[in-house]
Please model this.
Amino acid sequence: MKHKSVLEKDLNKLITKLHREVFGRGPDEVWVKIHRNVGTFSCVKSLTSLEEFLLTTPHGVDEVLRLRQVIAANIKPRFCAEVESLSGVKVVSVTGKLSIETNTFYGAILFHDEIEDKLS
Model:
């Protein structure tokens, strides 16, 4: 089994890869931390050029947040499956929120079991 720090690095790579596939580029920085049965992550400078343009238009904030919700709903099953494959632990829930003000996407992964119990 993997050590927790290796799993955190693998999740970092996965999040960067999926962000790049969906948005055409990866975030500037990804941070992942696992504690017990929760993984938290943040993606710094997550907004694309198109989203930054939309933010300058009337109702742009609402439109960007709506589009991100649609994208999240569609990518979530694949993300959960890949996280489960990497960790060997069932994912109960994934949640995330884009902060327009900080240009950062924050998220959390709730695992069924404590990660430390499953990793060596």
Remarks:
- The mean pLDDT is 94.
